[in-house]
Amino acid sequence: MIALYGRVSTEEQATKGYSLRNQIEECRRKANTKEIVEYVDDGYSGEFLERPALTKLREDVKGNRITKVYCYDPDRLSRKLMNALIIDDEFRSKGVDIIYINGEYADSPEGKLFYSLRGAISEFEKAKITERMSSGRKRKAQEGKIVKNHKMYGYDYDKEKAMYVINEHEASVVKMIFHKFVVEQIGMNSIAKELTAKGVKTKTGKDVWHRQVVRQILMNESYTGDYYQNKWNTEGMIRNKYTDNPDNKIKMRHRDKSEWIPISIPQIIERTQYEEAAELLKQSRRRYAKAAVNQYLLSGLLRCGTCGNTMVGTKTTWWGKPHFIYTDRKSHAGAKHPGCVLDIKMEKLDEEVWKDVEQLVYNPDLLFKYDNTKDVSMELKQAEKLKEDIKKAEKGRKKLYSLFAISDDLDEEELKKEIVDLQDKQRKAEERLMEVEKEINKNKNDRDIDSIKETINELMSKEDRITFDVKKSLIRVLVKEVIVEGKEKININYF
Fold first, then answer.
1. Are strands 68-71 and 2-8 parallel, antiparallel or unpaired?
2. Which residue of 139, 276, 345, 408 shows the fewest CB atoms closer than 10 Å?
3. How far apart are CA 343 and CA 317, in angstroms?
4. What is the DSSP letter of 334?
5. Residue 152's closest CA among 209, 263, 227, 207?
6. Helices (H), 269-376
7. Domain named Recombinase: which ranges (predicted)?
8. pLDDT above 50 (res 14)
């Protein structure tokens, strides 16, 4: 229900001709609805809060019978600024917006003071709440209690004792992972695939293990029994939801080690084994950093027309000799489709695609000869998946809001963080969906051929001959995707 509040004192009526009718008419015009209830104090001073209509309005707001209030300006609520702030805050705490009709009020000295004070009070209250919660968590940590259940694999959380206890089944998996990596020298990807094949569930109940999950376990020092709280500084991160610019977002960062609070938890892995695993991970990073990277002309453009997998370039050995191929095989743990084992020689495919593209390089007008129709089945599937992700995020947020409303013992800040994370996921999915739908609806006739010609000429003028890098750039100017249908047929989708 929408309400309007109007007030005029006897003095104002007599000396200033302050019109109550004008207030009501302006409020109704702004609300633009007939479904509005009037709360009017005629002949009452704004010095005091005890007014019949105002008292009734406050009671109805507390009883959740009012959703929005229209008022000419704050001095109609009260002549005293502090009282007006109290009522304003009281209404907003119940989720009721107050719309002030007098737009000039915001630009007046009184209005600027009013809004400045309201903002300052709000910030002060937030800071005090944050300080109290932070102090409470820190005190709890100093008492040797676990502040928050991070759902660490290998442990369960005893809420009464505020402590991690070993989950025997998961702990045996953790020990197996360290043993295979350190003793048997088995790679993280192979370990992840083995756990998936054996039907071992992840901490979140998923059937598929990924290489990165295994890596996180190997890097987790907590399994040695040394657990640290107050390690991460998340101050100010709640504001990230108000900006889309990644440069303006505050990142989670380590506090100084002197601020960390150590807690002993049950040990699963010996420290020596953890340190051996850490050293192997360092060596693996060094090997990866030094590894020579082969260049592939069509990297990022190829897709198998049968299974839909992207195709990547790789080096293989046939009869003792090295060969370079493009393949749709996905050997990493957690791959949704392993591929239909389509391998094609890199040299053969590069030559075939470049031969077709080369015609356009010297005559871009030929772009008009290509069929404007394009298979958008992959984009349609992606759009459906994004819509599903958006629905899941919305549903998740509603559940968290419900928990927030009915529970008193949940961590308010953590709930807020999870809600913000879901909002961020939903926003990114919505942005990506807009891009995909735009691509589906895109008409190839809208291309700017002159712009393409200009880009081609610029690339061609950089070198005396067409080098590998120039070829790669030219292909990316003209080609959107290459669909490989078996070893003999290819479809090149141009922009």
1. parallel
2. 408
3. 13
4. T
5. 227
6. 271-290, 346-362
7. 152-287
8. no
> What is the DSSP-derived secondary structure letter of residue 201?
-
Q: Give the separation between CA 195 and CA 203, rounded to whole angstroms.
A: 13
- Are residues 423 and 397 in contact, defined by beta-carbon separation less than 8 angstroms? yes
Q: Report the percentage of the chain scoring pLDDT > 70.
A: 76
| Phi, psi values for residue 3, rounded to 5° | -120, 155
DSSP 228-278: EES-EE-TTGGGGGG---GGGSPPPEEPPGGG-EEEE----S-HHHHHHHH
The rounded distance, in Å, linking the Cα atoms of 300 and 186 is 30
Nearest to 335 by CA among 202, 196, 471, 157: 196
- How many Å apart are CA 231 and CA 257, to the nearest integer? 7
Which tokens sit at 230?
Answer: 């107050």
C-alpha to C-alpha distance for 372 and 454, rounded to whole angstroms: 22
Residue 388: CB atoms within 10 A of its CB come to 11
Query: Crossing angle of helices 412-441/109-142, nearest 10°?
Result: 110
Spatial contact of 475 and 492, defined as CB atoms under 8 Å apart: no
Which two structure tokens, joined as six digits, stand for 395? 């549903």
Which has the closest alpha carbon to 96: 127, 123, 73, 70?
70
Partners of residue 312 on adjacent β-strands: 327
Directed axis angle between helix 168-182 and helix 188-197, to 10°?
140
53 burial level (CB within 10 Å; 0-12, 13-18, 19+): middle
> CA 377, CA 385: separation in Å to the nearest integer?
12
Question: Which residues are the active-site residues?
Answer: 9
Q: pLDDT for 391-422, tens place per residue? A: 888 887 777 666 655 555 556 666 667 777 78
The amino acid that residue 473 corresponds to is S
- 116 CB-near residues (< 8 Å, 6+ apart): none
Sign, CA torsion 426/430/431/436: positive
Contact 69, 57 (CB under 8 A): yes
Nearest-10 Cα torsion for 316, 319, 322, 325: -40
CA distance 191 to 180: 7
Query: What is the Cα–Cα distance from 98 to 90, expressed in whole angstroms?
Result: 11
Contact 205, 258 (CB under 8 A): no
CB 309 within 8 A of CB 337: yes
Q: Based on the number of CB atoms within 10 Å of its own CB, is 411 exposed (0-12), middle (13-18) or buried (19 or more)?
A: middle
Q: Give the other-Cβ count within 10 Å of 492's Cβ.
A: 18
Q: How many beta carbons lie within 10 A of that of residue 101, not counting itself?
A: 20
At 149-198, the pLDDT tens digits run: 889 999 999 988 999 999 999 999 999 999 999 888 888 888 999 999 99
CA distance 339 to 307: 6
Q: Measured between alpha carbons, how far is 323 from 347 in angstroms, rounded to an integer? A: 9
Sign of CA dihedral 285, 291, 297, 302: negative
Length of the chain equals 495
- The H or E element spanning position 11 is helix 10-15
